[in-house]
Amino acid sequence: MSDQSPIDIERILELLPHRYPFLLVDRVLEVQFEEPPRIRALKNVTMNEPFFQGHFPGHPVMPGVLILEAMAQAAGCLAHLARQAEGAASELYYLVKIDKARFNKVVVPGDQLIFEVQQKRLMRGMGLYQAETFVDGQRVASAELLCAARPNKQ
What we know:
Elements: H1 9-15, E1 27-32, E2 38-44, H2 64-85, E3 91-103, E4 112-123, E5 126-135, E6 138-151
Antiparallel strand pairs: 1-2, 2-4, 3-6, 4-5, 5-6
């Protein structure tokens, strides 16, 4: 699957505008640009994540909305890397729609999330992605994500 791998946190910081505590991708494991483009990335879930203070005290569970956001960030990494491979200008990608979201298991401190995101199609500056998240080989979440590209004004 690999056209480029692994990609460390310093490179991810160049690809995504997110910063602590909202950067939710720690490493890109594999990227494939041939059809269909896809990416495998990871996030280590630790007890010192700020959201665990209130979600839930005494029973820490990672919020599903943050798992969705992390999958969208992995999709953003894929989009940036694919555009760079084509020699295209950098753009920002905004999550604009989530369909078919499913949560199969809770995510707790100590879990390592593996994101597998595949680009389904591009149309008029929008990318449609199929995303799944796994812990220890078991799917914990999945969704279809629609992201919109906007010029990066850096």
